[in-house]
Amino acid sequence: MEKVLVGVLLAAFAAIVMWWRRPLLWPRTTFWTVYGASLIAMRAMPFVLFFVVFGTMRATGDVPEYYYPQAQSVLHNMLPIRDFPVHYGPLFPYVCALVVSVWNSPTAIVLFSILMELASVFVWIVAAQECFEETTVRKAALLYATSLLPIANVGVSGQNQVWVSLFLGSSTYVLIKGRPALSGIFLGMSVILVKILGGLFAPILAGSCSRWGRWLGGFGVTVLGTYALFVLLGANPLLPLLQEAHMHSPGNISFFLTIFGFSQDNVISKIVSYGIMGLLFAHVAMRLRTVQGSHDGNLLLFHSIAFMYLGFALFSPKSYTYYAMICFFPICLSISSIMSNRAGLFPFALFGILLVVEPNLWQSWFLRHDFQGLFSLNLPKNVSLKGAVGFLVAEAVLLFLYCYYGMRIWRVVLAARPQVSTSVTIRDGDTGLVVLPLGQRGEWIEKTGSA
């Protein structure tokens, strides 16, 4: 209930700012200085007060259960995957070990995640400013700062999805600046340093650049080189991926369909789900190929990242809602660019709240079961019909919002058109390069004898 209240208050604040509009018209330096200071304060003050001064909060979830113990194992000279199980990138325990070697506490990892988030927001803003209007970027930044998900996922839980976001944002930025190999290296670092989910966006980034071979080279050398090293050391770096393939989560189509008696372990269901995801990836990659190198192509890259995550969340059998932090800023950017009026803030606020509370509802209302018991009217022990129906409604609304925003962004993807040249550059011996409309090329050659 507290999370819902905080989410509502944040949404109300965003609505006030959007209605007032004056901050959106501030000079660029003033706006981003105030925004940066406010975002830092929103992360620093709760951390210092609740984690450090009063000690009323402790790191929870994956940080004390997985991140910190794996860091301790590395500090005891154990090799990830070979000597202890790892569900993340092969180098992820080493990053955590480096953090806790400075401050030996799970809280240190939470602080590190906050720093990674601040860096990722900065990178995404700089990248977005290369392509979008300033007002759109400012609205997206406000949507992000007033959303419940970053506060809960990073400021409280310290989870590592935002680490992937930093590498994905860096990869996107350098790709826009014409550095495909470096872009591939950055995304590859997200796979080996954090988790394999970063590789989800490899087809999108590779498909958006004409020198895709360089991009794949940078990505491949980074990932395959690291994996080869672990193989030589006696570890199987693909083991975490094989383990993840057998896991499930709520918040997706396959989970919702268990209400009709289907199992998430059903082979046909998995083939259909992954097949649809593959078709979505192929479609978006082909759209990016048609507009690569143009301004529309760069805009489409951001929309494609948001669209592909929504497609993954909808169809992947394992797609926890907090994975959205991987590309939450591009999602905010896409939504801010298609939001026609301030009333659009309210469904987005509901979306952000559901992303945070859905895992808690699954645990408390449905005790981590699927809907098969509801289908047969044979509910699991200690699960009430009221709680089951309440969680079913929450799941239905979440899936509707995935579809709604996904379809809105898909329309933008379909609307993108290849850049058609309306001029030609001709080299003239006297004046150098001359840019002429296409229709005047023949007249120029006939008049000057230059081609």
Explain this structure:
With 451 residues, the protein is an all-alpha fold. The chain folds into two domains: 419 residues, no CATH class; 29 residues, no CATH class. It contains 20 helices and two strands. A two-stranded antiparallel sheet has the order 1-2. A hairpin with a 3-residue loop joins strand 1 and strand 2. Helix 9 packs parallel to helix 11. The radius of gyration is 24 Å and the shape is globular.
A few lines on this structure:
The chain is mainly α. It has helices at 2-20, 28-53, 62-75, 92-102, 106-129, 134-145, 148-156, 161-176, 180-193, 202-207, 212-232, 239-244, 253-256, 267-291, 295-315, 328-338, 345-364, 372-375, 385-415, 441-448; strands spanning 423-428, 432-437.
- Which residue ranges are poorly predicted, with pLDDT under 50 across at least 5 consecutive positions? 420-427, 429-436
Identify the overall geometry. Answer: globular
How many beta-strand segments? 2
- Which radius of gyration do the C-alpha atoms yield? 24 Å
Question: How far do the termini sit from each other?
Answer: 72 Å
